[in-house]
Design brief:
The protein has about 350 residues and is an alpha/beta fold. The chain is about 30% helix and about 30% strand.
């Protein structure tokens, strides 16, 4: 392995593959190419022009693949950054080839199907990291890190603002028109997408935004990670036009690159005899942050022998603080809100 010393059982050459080179995948590939823990990075996209462009931009350490399976390349971990919908099938293919898997998909069906691979991944001695993006992903890490400061956690509430590339924007649109699920008292409760308006405060300059229920997968990853949790919700920011058109085809093409985005996690629980609330947040371009999260998760999966096997979200990462610290080093930083909706400080 390139870089400093490592445990003997994993000092073999570490190769990563990135499948899908959209807004998130291209950023993940760039982060992996610059990582001292990864020896080589293979890349693939269904669009040969896009594959050639990204390969040229990343330089000689990025090696184009002939197909998404990464056959015969000695890959250690595959990052799946294709659009929502085919991640479970791709993950099975890579598990068959002995690869760890990191998926950036936030689609409810994808996340459900990927989590169902837990038994198969365990049998093969492999790991499938699910929802390794902005939200879920970074939001899961913030939830786990914040929860460590409580004696017990009763509620988790996630909200997000902004989208990454076109595929992310389409998913945002479809999620608002879908069915949301809240976790309440040990059971899932179905809600109508676009309902449950709540004013949520994000790090400045995003500030206060109206957020609504949507078909989001955050709860599917948070509930298994917090035994005894009583309530989990997830919302996304939306305008009145977003809500009115959510059940129609998108009226205009999505922006080719997402602009500023933000995520916040509200944690409610007990410290001693008192009930307390902690709000953590982060702000970045969603595609940039999601790419960094996916890349750091890929490195973490390969070089962290203490991480459990199977399929899980980043709320079950073996050392979430170490992952957050590495993300901060790469420019993705979190903050804790203090005293007022707009007052915040960096997470230590």
């Amino acid at each position: 392995m390139a870089g400093a010393s490592c445990p003997a059982q994993i000092c073999a050459e570490v190769r990563a593959a990135v499948i899908g080179l959209g807004s998130v995948g291209a950023r993940a590939a760039r982060q992996l190419v610059s990582s001292a823990d990864i020896d080589s990075v293979f890349i693939f996209d269904n669009d040969p022009t896009r594959l050639a462009e990204v390969g040229t931009a990343l330089g000689e350490r990025a090696i184009p693949l002939a197909g998404p399976e990464a056959d015969g390349q000695g890959v250690s971990v595959a990052v799946l950054a294709t659009p929502v919908g085919d991640h479970a099938d791709l993950a099975r293919t890579h598990l068959d080839r002995g690869h760890h898997v990191v998926s950036v998909s936030d689609g409810v069906e994808d996340v459900t199907a990927l989590l169902a691979l837990d038994g198969e991944a365990r049998r093969r001695g492999l790991r499938v990291v699910v929802g390794a993006g902005f939200a879920p992903g970074l939001s899961c890490l913030l939830a786990r890190h914040g929860a460590a400061t409580f004696d017990s956690v009763n509620e988790l509430h996630v909200a997000k603002y902004g989208t990454g590339g076109p595929a992310c924007a389409r998913q945002h649109h479809e999620a608002l028109g879908g069915h949301a699920t809240d976790w309440r008292g040990g059971a899932w409760v179905e809600r109508r997408g676009g309902s449950g308006r709540e004013l949520c405060w994000f790090p400045e300059p995003v500030g206060g935004q109206d957020c609504y229920r949507a078909a989001l997968s955050d709860g599917l990853l948070l509930v298994p990670a917090f035994s005894g949790i009583q309530r989990v919700t997830a919302r996304q920011a939306a305008t009145r036009r977003d809500r009115l058109t959510a059940r129609l085809p998108m009226l205009r093409p999505p922006h080719p690159e997402g602009v500023l985005g933000a995520v916040r996690v509200e944690i409610r629980g007990r410290r001693g005899a008192a009930t307390d609330v902690l709000v953590l947040g982060a702000m970045d371009r969603p595609g940039v942050a999601a790419g960094a999260v996916a890349a750091v998760a890929a490195v973490h999966v390969v070089i962290a022998p203490e991480q459990r096997l199977g399929a899980f979200g980043l709320a079950e990462a073996a050392d979430p603080l170490a992952v957050l610290a590495e993300l901060a080093r790469r420019g993705v930083k979190a903050a804790v809100f203090e005293g007022s909706p707009v007052a915040s400080r960096a997470v230590p």
